[in-house]
């Protein structure tokens, strides 16, 4: 009996877990189906399951990387749309797990409310982004100006509507389950929508801040799998039994080197380094600017200890490459913990993958579990070490003020410059 009970539980599951699951109507997991395309099944039929999985993952990985290059070529607006689609799919996968495990299909309005809250949160975040980055476009169009002025009030009113609908939907026999699923929805919104919003912010700072971090996570995932597949012997963490120290360490060094090389290549192109801006003259979004110091080659002295090894005293590189070391280090050392977190989540609910959208890889969320953690780090990193005041945005806002307000700011700024002696020196020149 003890052996039978232990087989039915995953690592770390206690009796209280089972009782809680039973209370919410949990059921045993559904066995995973083989979602590999029939063409690949026939072509790889003579291989062992280990090598078959290796080829399936490899082929699908190349297909996804090709698709990634295509959407990069199509520009930032397409990238933003793809991020939105990925966000919706990830939300769907996580919410579906809640529905399946806790039999919440019978809860009144809950499916509708979950998607309604997703709509509300996206309206709030994307409205803030449009107002922040495309201020002149918003001020030029009357409907957009009104929506921008009352954006936060409208967003709050929409959320309150959903909140009242949830309270009205409460059923006597399902109070605990309904509040549990209410929390489930909001935690999912916090993890998925907030992080995808940060990805959009990173993208508008320059495509390089979007592509390099995502590519570093992809590289680390691939190289950790490769090193673990061929050299892995030492288990890394119980949550992911297939992860090994060999894969973890090999992935780290490979990712740092990859980040340096990719940053060097991309830093030479304005289309990657310039922020996305709206051009009033052409009524279109542009990616063109004078590259900042981050993307201009500079000469650095090599430490004396390494000079005898490499044979150089100086090296020319972009300052962004130094920042890429921080990004790739986070992607390879801390980023995998997003995957470990997702593994623990899946083990808690006895599921192999979030979905079977991508054969050999699972669902969309299985591929983006580390990306969301990386997006938060990049956004915090930019705000802490990179971004400064943007004069163009300040001027745009200044021009939308009333004449008396503009005059007041002008006189204040003039008095400040005179006191510092800057205005006088300019007049003398």
Automatic annotation (TrEMBL):
Topology relative to the membrane: Multi-pass membrane protein
Domain of life: Eukaryota
Residue span of region Disordered: 1-33
A Pfam family of this chain: CTP_transf_1
Key words of the record: Lipid biosynthesis, Lipid metabolism, Membrane, Nucleotidyltransferase, Phospholipid biosynthesis, Phospholipid metabolism, Transferase, Transmembrane, Transmembrane helix
InterPro entries: PC_trans, PC_Trfase_euk
Transmembrane segments: 109-126, 153-171, 178-200, 206-232, 244-266, 320-342
GO terms (BP aspect): CDP-diacylglycerol biosynthetic process
Listed GO CC annotations: endoplasmic reticulum membrane
Catalytic reactions on record: 1,2-di-(5Z,8Z,11Z,14Z)-eicosatetraenoyl-sn-glycero-3-phosphate + CTP + H(+) = 1,2-di-(5Z,8Z,11Z,14Z-eicosatetraenoyl)-sn-glycero-3-cytidine-5'-diphosphate + diphosphate; a 1,2-diacyl-sn-glycero-3-phosphate + CTP + H(+) = a CDP-1,2-diacyl-sn-glycerol + diphosphate; 1,2-di-(9Z-octadecenoyl)-sn-glycero-3-phosphate + CTP + H(+) = 1,2-di-(9Z-octadecenoyl)-sn-glycero-3-cytidine-5'-diphosphate + diphosphate; 1-octadecanoyl-2-(4Z,7Z,10Z,13Z,16Z,19Z-docosahexaenoyl)-sn-glycero-3-phosphate + CTP + H(+) = 1-octadecanoyl-2-(4Z,7Z,10Z,13Z,16Z,19Z-docosahexaenoyl)-sn-glycero-3-cytidine-5'-diphosphate + diphosphate
Enzyme Commission no: 2.7.7.41
Biased composition (Basic and acidic residues): 1-22
MF (Gene Ontology): phosphatidate cytidylyltransferase activity
Subcellular location: Membrane
Pathway the protein acts in: Phospholipid metabolism; CDP-diacylglycerol biosynthesis; CDP-diacylglycerol from sn-glycerol 3-phosphate: step 3/3; Lipid metabolism
Chief location: membrane
Signal peptide residues on this chain, from the entry's feature table: none
Similarity annotation: Belongs to the CDS family.
Record-given protein name: Phosphatidate cytidylyltransferase
Species lineage: Eukaryota, Metazoa, Chordata, Craniata, Vertebrata
């Amino acid at each position: 009996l003890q052996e039978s009970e232990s087989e039915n539980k995953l690592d770390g599951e206690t009796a209280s877990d089972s009782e809680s699951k039973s209370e919410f109507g949990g059921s045993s997991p559904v066995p995973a189906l083989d979602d590999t395309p029939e063409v690949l099944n026939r072509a790889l039929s003579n291989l062992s399951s280990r090598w078959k999985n290796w080829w399936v993952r490899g082929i699908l990985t190349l297909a996804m990387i090709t698709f990634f290059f295509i959407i990069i070529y199509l520009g930032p607006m397409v990238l933003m749309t793809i991020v939105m689609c990925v966000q919706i799919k990830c939300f769907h996968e996580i919410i579906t797990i809640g529905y399946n495990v806790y039999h919440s299909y019978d809860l009144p309005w809950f499916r509708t409310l979950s998607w309604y809250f997703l709509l509300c949160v996206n309206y709030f975040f994307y409205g803030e982004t449009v107002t922040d980055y495309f201020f002149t476009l918003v001020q030029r169009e009357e409907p957009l100006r009104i929506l921008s002025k009352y954006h936060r009030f409208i967003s709050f009113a929409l959320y309150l509507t959903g909140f009242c609908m949830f309270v009205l939907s409460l059923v006597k026999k399902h109070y605990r389950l309904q509040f549990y699923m209410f929390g489930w929805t909001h935690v999912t919104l916090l993890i998925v929508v907030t992080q995808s919003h940060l990805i959009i912010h990173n993208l508008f700072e320059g495509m390089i801040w979007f592509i390099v971090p995502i590519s570093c996570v992809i590289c680390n995932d691939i190289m950790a799998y490769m090193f673990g597949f061929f050299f892995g012997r030492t288990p890394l963490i119980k949550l992911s039994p297939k992860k090994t120290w060999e894969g973890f360490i090999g992935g780290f060094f490979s990712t740092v080197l990859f980040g340096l090389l990719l940053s060097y290549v991309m830093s030479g192109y304005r289309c990657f380094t310039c922020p996305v801006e709206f051009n009033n003259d052409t009524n279109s979004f542009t990616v063109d600017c004078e590259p900042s110091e981050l993307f201009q080659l500079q000469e650095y002295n090599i430490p004396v200890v390494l000079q005898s090894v490499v044979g150089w005293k100086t090296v020319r590189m972009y300052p962004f490459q130094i920042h890429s070391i921080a990004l790739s280090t986070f992607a390879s050392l801390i980023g995998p913990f997003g995957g470990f977190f997702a593994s623990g989540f899946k083990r808690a609910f006895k599921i192999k993958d979030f979905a079977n959208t991508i054969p050999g890889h699972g669902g969309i969320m299985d591929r983006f579990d580390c990306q969301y953690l990386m997006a938060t780090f990049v956004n915090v990193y930019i705000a802490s070490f990179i971004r400064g005041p943007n004069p163009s945005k300040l001027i745009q806002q200044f021009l939308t003020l009333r004449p008396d307000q503009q005059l007041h700011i002008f006189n204040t700024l003039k008095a400040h410059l005179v006191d510092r002696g800057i205005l006088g020196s300019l007049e003398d020149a």
